[in-house]
Amino acid sequence: MASIVECVPNFSEGRRGEVIEAIADGIRGQRGVRLLDIQADASHNRSVLSFVGDLDAVRAAALAATRRAVELIDMNVHKGEHPRMGAVDVIPFVPISGVTMEECVGAARRLGREIWETLRVPVFFYAEAATRPERRRLPDIRKGEYEGLREKLAGLDWMPDVGEPAPHPTAGATVVGARAPLIAYNINLASEDVEVARKIARAVRESSGGLANVQAMGVRSESGRAQVSMNLLDYTRTPIHVAYEQVRLEASRHGVDILESEVVGLVPLDAIAESARFYLRLRGFNREQILEAKLME
Questions:
Q1: pLDDT in tens, 20-64
Q2: How is the chain split among helix, strand and coil, in percent rounded to 5?
Q3: Are strands 123-127 and 174-178 parallel, antiparallel or unpaired?
Q4: Structural domains of the chain sorted by starting position, each given as residue range(s) with its CATH number in brackets
Q5: How far is the C-alpha of 77 from the C-alpha of 72, rounded, in Å?
Q6: Is 196 helix (H, G, I), strand (E, B) or coil?
Q7: Catalytic option among 78, 82, 168, 254
Q8: Is 82 considered catalytic here?
Q9: Would the pTM count as exceeding 0.85?
Q10: What is the per-residue pLDDT across 234-284, written as a single tens digit (0 to 9) for each?
């Protein structure tokens, strides 16, 4: 079985197309890697790139893209709706086939050391690569964002896992880790009231007593609409349609309708099939009935 790892780095640039392309070229220039997707959001001022390959090639491509981002992004002038703490905000390794989570953890920690040694950007490890329980969740590491980073790093509780306790002067800090596939899923409301989106986000996210393995925040979308922006960390426990229906229920309590929803980046076929099974009320439907799934066997 071929070794396939997905990497989905998030960069703090969603407006300058030439910068996003330069970062993407860092990935394209690495042999053994295939760039699958680029998505940029001007309101979030953030781009998400997805690429695959074997572990060594993916790690090299991630380092090359990070180098471009550190050269071209100045966090001192960065503004956007999405929380962030660095030019390269997060780099997750995701095992797809022929590779274990433990191997992805090893690659993540090696990349973290390379980022510090070559670019002098301090690094935190998260998710399965976390060095301590309080660093498993990305929002906990990111709390305070770039503006509070210098003070945060100076505290003994938030010393970087790799590097000195001071941010890079323009690139801040980076978080690197290994995790299972997640779905970045946004729901735009038929309203411009961001406070309503924030109330809905508090109701649906796990940390506030909502849905399991769901992170959520209320922000303003690129179109100016209020948006509930979510990460579904385990779509087998909380599928897309469950998150959608819970947001719809909470929105109705505020007299607001859902306008549309969107997936950021790539999504597993099984997740879409599960939502189709739910909404179409398909009896006895299984993955083997999907044409493309059969062709990939």
A1: 999 999 999 999 999 999 999 999 999 999 999 999 999 999 999
A2: 40, 25, 35
A3: parallel
A4: 4-178 (3.30.990.10), 183-295 (3.30.70.670)
A5: 12
A6: helix
A7: 82
A8: yes
A9: yes
A10: 999 999 999 999 999 999 999 999 999 999 989 999 999 999 999 999 998
